[in-house]
Each structure stands twice: as C-alpha cells, then as structure tokens.
Amino acid sequence: MTALGSPGATLAAIRARGPLVHNITNFVAMDLAANALLAVGASPLMAHAREEVAEVVGAADALTVNMGTFSPPWVEAAELAAGEARRLGKPWTLDPVGVGATGFRRENGRRLAACGPSLVRGNASEILALSGLAAGGGRGVDSADTVQGAASAADALARRLNCVVAVTGPVDRVTDGERVARVANGHPLMTRVTALGCSLTAVSGACLAVEPDPFLAALHALALVGVAGEQAAATAAGPGSFRVGYLDSLHGLTPDALEAAARLQEGDS
Amino acid sequence: MTALGSPGATLAAIRARGPLVHNITNFVAMDLAANALLAVGASPLMAHAREEVAEVVGAADALTVNMGTFSPPWVEAAELAAGEARRLGKPWTLDPVGVGATGFRRENGRRLAACGPSLVRGNASEILALSGLAAGGGRGVDSADTVQGAASAADALARRLNCVVAVTGPVDRVTDGERVARVANGHPLMTRVTALGCSLTAVSGACLAVEPDPFLAALHALALVGVAGEQAAATAAGPGSFRVGYLDSLHGLTPDALEAAARLQEGDS
Amino acid sequence: MTALGSPGATLAAIRARGPLVHNITNFVAMDLAANALLAVGASPLMAHAREEVAEVVGAADALTVNMGTFSPPWVEAAELAAGEARRLGKPWTLDPVGVGATGFRRENGRRLAACGPSLVRGNASEILALSGLAAGGGRGVDSADTVQGAASAADALARRLNCVVAVTGPVDRVTDGERVARVANGHPLMTRVTALGCSLTAVSGACLAVEPDPFLAALHALALVGVAGEQAAATAAGPGSFRVGYLDSLHGLTPDALEAAARLQEGDS
C-alpha cells in the first residue's frame, strides 16, 4: 500500500498534533462537522464573519469550505478565507454542495473553484456540474450520476484546477489528474444521514493538515470516514443510531484497526 | 378509514418516489428536519438565499417554511419561495413558530399566511395567535393553550386562507374548514426535544408531495411522526435517546405497521 | 454546604417553574443548547433578529449570549438584548467563545462585557483574554491555559464588571470577586463534544432564573452539567453516545441525586 500511503499513520498524526481546522460550512452540517473533527482528535473552529476569516485562517492548519446554505456574505467570506489560505500555502477543501442545482450555486462554485482549492470533494453530480461537463443536473444535494460516469470530468477538473478531486459514492474515486485510486469503504446508511458527506469534508481538512500530499490525504480521509461508517452500521438500528455510532467509531478507531480495514486500490479497476 | 385515507399508502408513496422537499427553516431545526426527511425516504434541500429560492422551488415537489429564527432577509426569501410555489401549484406548509411572541413574529406570520399556504401547522397558541383570535399569547414556542380551545380559531383560519390547519397537542386536530379529524398518536417526550414539531412540518412536505388532498396529507404526516414517536418512547431513557430512536423508527417503520398503529378519528369527538 | 447553597433545590425550582430562557447563541450550539434546557425542565427560545430581541427579553426569565459564530448583526442584537436585560434587572450570561482568537472577537467581547453580564462563563484562555491579562492567546475555542492560572484574571474581571466569573476546566472555579468556590464534577469526554460548554451556558440561564444569587446559580449549573456528564460517561462508548446520554441524564437526574453527587468546595484549595 506504499503508493497510497498509510491511513493509520495519518490518523495517528491527527491524534498527536490535534490540528486546528477552520470550517466555513452550511447550517445543517456545522454540528456534525465539528463533532467529527473532535472525534478524530482535531480541533474545529467555525467562523464566517468577513471581519475575522483571514485571521482565523492564519491561525489554522487547514480550511474547509462547504457552500451548502451559502448566501452572498458567506460566499464573500469564503473567498477571503480561501485566498488567504492560498497566500499562506495552507491546504483547503472545497465541497460544492448542490452546485448544479441553481444558477446561484453554479456561480458560487465557479468563484470558489477559482480560489485554488487543494481538494474538491463532491458526489458525481456535483463534480460533473463543477467540471462544466454537465449542462444542468443535480437533484437536491443527492447524486443522480455514478462515480465512474464522472471519472473523466473529475480528471479534467483536477488538471484544470491543479488539485485533487474526490468523487464519493459506493466506491469513492480520487485523482490528482495523474494518479487515480479508489476507496471501497462505507455503507449505504451514510446516504440517509444529513451532513455525513460534509463531515467527510471536515475530516479531510484534518488529514490535509498532517499529510502533505493532498492525494493521499483525501484517500485517508475517505478510508477513515468509510471504516467508521462500516463499524457504526454493524450495530445501528437506523440512521439515528448510525449517526451516534459513527462519532463513537471515529473516536475509538485505532490507527492499526483503520490500516487493517481500509480498502484502497490503485487505478480505475 | 376510507374518508381519512391510508397513512401506509402515503408512506409507501414517499419511499417509492423520494420527493424533493425544499425547506426554509430555523437554525435549530435544520438538522432534525433534514434527517427526518431522509429517514422517511424523501430528499431534503435547505436553501434560503433570495438569489436561488424560486429556482429551488421550481425543482422541488413541495416547500416548507418554518419562521422560528427568521430575520428580515429570511422572511423575504420565504415570501419569494411561497409565492413561486403558489404560482406553480406546488404545495407548501407554514409553521408559524412562536407567532404570538413578538410584534415582529406577528407581522411575519401575517405576511407568510398571505402567501397562501396549503397547510398551516402549529400548536394551539400559535394557531390562536395567527387566527387573530388571541390578543397576545405565546410563551416561548411552547403551547399554553389547548388543542380543543383553538378549534374554532383553526376552523376560521382554514376558511379564511382556504387551507388545511393542523393543531398539534396530546391529540392533534386537523381541519380544512369543512372536514375535521383527529390523530391520537404521539408521546409526551416529544415536547422535551427541540425541533420535533419542526420535523413534523418537514415530513408534512413529503406527504403533501405525494398525497394530493392536503387534509389527508396532514393527517398522515401526524400519524407517521406520532407512531414513530411512540415506538421511540417505548425504549428511550430520556430525550437524548428518544431523538435517536425517533429517526430510527421513521426509517424502519413499514407502511403496514404505520397503518395498524395510526389512530385517526373523524370529527371532534 | 450552606454557603454554597443547594444544587438540588435549584434543579427542583427549574422543574417547578419552567423558566423561559432566551438564547442568542452560535449556529453550532443551538441544537444542544435548546435540548439541554428542555431536558432540565426549562423552556428555550432562540431569537436574534434585532427587530424582536428586546421584546423577547421582556418575556423571558433570563438571557444567555454566546458569541461563537457572531457576525456584526448578531453582536448588535446581543447588545440590544443585554441592554434590555440590564434595564429590566433580568440576569444574563456571557459566553465569550474564542474571544482571544481574533481582533473581531476581542472587540465583540469588550462590547458585550460592557453590557454588564450577571455571569461570564468561559475556559481559562477565554477568561484570560477577556480580562485583558493575556496579550493574545486562544487556540481555536479550546483552552490552552489552566483554570488556576486564570484565577487572578477571573477575580479581576469579576470585580471590574461586578459580576460572577466561572472558569471551566477539569475543576471549575467560580468567583464574584469576593467569594471563591470550585466544582469538581465532569468528565474528559465533555471536551470531545462540540457545544457542551455552550449547553452549560444555556443551563446557567435556567439556574439564574430561579436562584437570585448568581454566584450560587453558576455553581449549581456547573454541578448539574458536570454530574450529568459523569453519568453519561459511565456508559458511553464514545462522544456520540455520550452526547445522547448527557441529555438523558439532564432529564432523568433527580434533585436528591444531584445533591448527593455535586462536589462543591469553598475556596481555592
């Protein structure tokens, strides 16, 4: 698993360093995003006021931007924060929630993508829309397209933005435009809990803070969240108890257990 | 139970069609509202920016508006969305949270009621306040009045707005100004969990999306949420585990089990 | 325990009177703050629109202000609400979340402290920053300083603002500038769940509403939340199930059990 790094080592580094992750995220996701970061051993900070976002980025180890319920002041603050992250060489993740759903979201997605993310994390429909390959698309914030169907759009987006693109689905696919790998962890119940994907985006910030290669950081975040989801699903009675168990698992997962359960694979098949 | 339709059939239709429900709701309720919709099989979308709400309504199957923590931009966005729903003939629910509590909320309630909701869902104090029969009233967002004490106010409101009015309490009462029915499901722990009523409002959007008669849709939403609450209460150790079990039950409830447990009654007694 | 009052009697009074607590709090904390208040038997109301906050304070028994994700309109609304509380002689709590983190938060903290809180509740870093004894400080919203290291800053702040200052940590310390007491309840898992401290701030509002001495009210809130945390930790598998059990315990805790488990101590050692 050398070429794909060690998810366990990344988790151990998060636990050891406790990176500060600045999140500008949607109203639905804030609670779960902050709790997921605390559970893995990182320190979350939510701040969106334009008066302070640049200063918060200066203190943080990574930034995540999730445009789920954005209104214009939030977009402006996210642009300020992302620009500062770029200027300081700090990694940041863009989660283009529902980017294909409205003209407003398409414009927000374009503006934020232009700020140079280290990682773009979305479902197939979102990546297709952001990549400009899909004319419209996007039903709510769920994905109506397949991960593999978004592969070439993801590759093109990664090359155009010079970043890593992670497309999540039953089997996740990550590319930096050159390398490709897949992560076969996770469970269908994860699609029945709101903000689960947003919590992955938050956790990716913690991984980016400790793993300098964003391609590996994205893979390890997907494995970490996916394995925690599998563990939670094993005893969950439904989406309510699944969400509880997911946070317990993120907290209790050891680096060795993660390493053993992670299902990373190079290439497209 | 013919005159009151089949709650089980409504749930089955939600599961089969996965309607997209657009919610403009308060900050406290967003998480539970989205999770309740996912649990019953619908697809939630939260969006409040004035730049996109009309377009979101265009893509959605139903809209719900919950004015709990509204500030003026949110009221304006809700008016835009409700107006578009009306124009397109799409159903929408108004939840007038704490409408009697302040002059600002009274004005917001008046403005939103004027947009022509398909369904108004509130506790007795809220319906009394909105109906203009109560001079002031409303202690916090809890109800200080009784469901039966709000019956004539609810009837008048339903006739004035040409909509369905659901007053929730120990036994819920639904009217369209002509028909009256009651739902005797639920559990007292539901009043000890924030946003439980808001999640009912969200679920009502899913029911309105698949059941064309809003009177029946309201009854079925009340039965669905009430039965899930009863199941959750059976094993809950308190409001924390109740909330978890409530989502599990919404997800696990079968149409047959709902049909068997629903306690719908025609008339006022 | 006479000089430190009776936590059990305070809890019993909350259950008997059901005080209405108005909260102007951050987006992350709203859900848990409202649920904690409901669980202890109080009635929460979240409202932040400048158009209504003064009227809400007029109806409420206490106010809490938590500046976690504030932007300028929220600061302005909190100032209006706090001023009205002061004018009406109603108690209010200030939670200066991350006050040392940015210049914007420092300015917000200064402005809100100038509104005359009854109680300031923060971790050691926050109290040091607010007291002006720390030049910068504050890593995220966690505490990098010790409770005892913030003791003189807390005393000075309490005297300057003529209020009670509660510094939370492994052992909490409360002072009104004259009296000092400590609370040795709680559990380390409480630092791994977002908004736990914010929920304490909300619960302090309920205690202030029924206990006229804010020094005692602060102690009793700390004991109540700390004992609930201990009970929850006894069976929790991690932060997810801990949060669930915490709300169950807040709801199920009897005044006698609280009285027996509370570990209040006079003085600094």
Strand runs of chain A, count: 9
- Report the top-level CATH class of chain A: Alpha Beta
CATH topology type of chain A: UDP-N-acetylmuramoyl-L-alanine:D-glutamate ligase
Q: Could you spell the SSE succession of chain A in H and E letters?
A: HEHEHEHEHEHHEEEHHHHE
Helix content of chain A: 40-55%
Structural class estimated from helices and strands of chain A: alpha/beta
CATH superfamily of chain A: Ribokinase
Instruction: Report the portion of residues of chain A in β strands.
Output: 5-15%
State the domain count of chain A. Answer: 1
The quaternary state of the protein chains shown equals: homotrimer
- Poorly predicted regions of chain A are 133-140
How would you summarize the topology of this molecule?
3 copies of one chain form a homotrimer.
Chain A: H1 7-17, E1 20-24, H2 30-40, E2 43-46, H3 53-59, E3 62-66, H4 72-88, E4 92-95, H5 103-113, E5 119-123, H6 124-130, H7 151-161, E6 164-168, E7 172-175, E8 180-183, H8 196-210, H9 214-235, H10 239-252, H11 255-261, E9 264-266
Parallel strand pairs in A: 1-2, 1-3, 3-4, 4-5, 5-6
Antiparallel strand pairs in A: 6-7, 7-8, 8-9
Concise description?
Chain A is an alpha/beta fold and 269 residues long.
Detailed description of the structure:
The structure is a homotrimer of 269-residue chains. Chain A has 269 residues and is α/β, with parallel strands linked by helices. Chain A has one domain: Ribokinase (UDP-N-acetylmuramoyl-L-alanine:D-glutamate ligase, 3-Layer(aba) Sandwich). Helices cover 49% and strands 14% of the residues of chain A. In chain A, strands 2-1-3-4-5-6-7-8-9 form a nine-stranded mixed beta sheet, with helices on both faces. In chain A, a hairpin with a 3-residue loop joins β6 and β7. In chain A, α2 crosses α8. The longest helix of chain A is centred in the C-terminal third of the chain and has 22 residues. Chain A is globular and about 40 Å long. About 3% of the residues of chain A have low confidence.
